[in-house]
Write a structure and sequence with these properties.
Layout: H1 2-13, H2 17-28, H3 35-49, H4 55-67, H5 74-82
Helix pairs in contact: 2-3, 3-4
Pfam family, one: SpoVIF
Protein name: Sporulation-specific transcription factor SpoVIF
Organism: Lederbergia ruris
Length: 85
């Protein structure tokens, strides 16, 4: 049942669910105070979502997460990517 659900999501979104699950696992133990780690995660999300992130947006996301102490979660990243200009 679960596998069928993931296959349907993949068909509708074009997003590989294995990549999403791998990303979710990597978020659990990630050091969100480390700029390099955060940049890597942003790039992964951008690639998975097929949404390019400009250097300016990447810098804003990194600052928000690393310096301002904001939590990094898929919903936050998605909102920031969707609001990019």
């Amino acid at each position: 049942m679960e596998n069928h659900f993931f296959k349907n999501v993949e068909k509708k979104t074009g997003v590989n669910m294995n990549e999403v699950l791998e990303l979710a696992n990597s978020l659990q133990n990630a050091n969100f105070k480390d700029e390099r780690t955060v940049r890597g995660i942003i790039k992964k999300v951008s690639r998975i979502a097929n949404k390019p992130v400009s250097k300016e947006m990447e810098d804003k996301l990194v600052k928000s997460i690393v310096q301002d102490g904001n939590q990094l979660d898929m919903d936050s990243i998605s909102k920031m990517l969707n609001n990019k200009r």
